[in-house]
């Protein structure tokens, strides 16, 4: 099978490895900014170079001249996995093969960007990965298969992302080699249940905790924001900046004013929000990440009130 794989990150590398193990002829369309070096995720461009796989990194995948290149490859399938450009017509109709996308949510929920963060923020009990046909509207094509992933009460953005990455890899393996019977599956998405998020609607640059938010909302926001090495929610105490790295899954009732430290022990620090308290199980010193979390908790005195920022 001849496959065009557009993508980046671990999920795309998993797919490449599986296809090569099964003898597929793969052409990689990497993101233009991928320099081939592994970071906190593996580089698809680097993996392609290492394995001797044909590779291109177009600035504009929808440019007519590049569509001609795609068509000339004579692919049996194009699949996009976290690719950073949106594919449009006339690419779909001119390329001459099915065009699929592997999206990190259970469509039709959480179309668009940052689906992992939004699944946590909106209180979903599960998310997952969806393989679907591509159409002009973003993440709106008919569904082929899905792989659900449960969301734990203490799930963070990073832990859920890692789980969905593995779920996406498993979904790819289940669907490969994408035979005619599988590709004929077209489960229409229920538009009445669709949610869509544009870039910037979740502002990851605003990281200071606002303790005056309702406890449930704040708990979900903190969990969604815990995504090392990209970002962590933060707060200050006595001029010292702390990063939150882990929280308990339960919210504890309290009448304390928002921002009040109601408990501090080796088990963590419990801080009041509006209508409930959140136990912070993991802390890091923003200036010195090597300081053990257990040494930071006692520095936050019970009864002290932490300042608030705007987390939205």
CATH hierarchy: architecture of the largest domain: 3-Layer(aba) Sandwich
* CATH class descriptor of the largest domain: Alpha Beta
How many H/I helical runs? 9
Q: What is the CA-based Rg, rounded?
A: 22 Å
The gross shape turns out to be elongated
State the helicity in percent bands: 25-40%
Secondary structure: number of strands: 14
Separation of the first and last Cα atoms: 47 Å
Number of domains: 2
Average pLDDT for all residues: 95
CATH topology of the largest domain: Rossmann fold
| Parts with pLDDT < 50 across at least 5 consecutive residues | none
User: For the largest beta sheet, what order do the strands appear in spatially?
Assistant: 3-2-1-4-5-7-8
CATH homologous superfamily identity of the largest domain: Formyl transferase, N-terminal domain
Task: Provide an overview of this structure.
With 312 residues, the protein is of the alpha/beta class. It has 2 domains: 2-197, Formyl transferase, N-terminal domain (Rossmann fold, 3-Layer(aba) Sandwich), CATH 3.40.50; 215-299, Formyl transferase, C-terminal domain (Methionyl-tRNA Fmet Formyltransferase, Chain A, domain 2), CATH 3.10.25. It has helices at 9-21, 44-51, 64-73, 91-94, 115-121, 157-175, 180-183, 215-225, 293-296; strands at residues 2-7, 25-30, 54-56, 77-81, 99-103, 111-112, 126-133, 143-150, 196-197, 234-237, 240-252, 261-265, 268-273, 276-285. It has a 7-stranded mixed beta sheet with strand order 3-2-1-4-5-7-8, covered by helices on one side. A 5-stranded antiparallel beta sheet has the order 10-11-14-13-12. Strands 6-9 form a two-stranded parallel ribbon. Helix 1 runs parallel beside helix 6 and helix 5 (115-121) runs antiparallel to helix 8 (215-225). The termini are far apart. The mean pLDDT is 95.
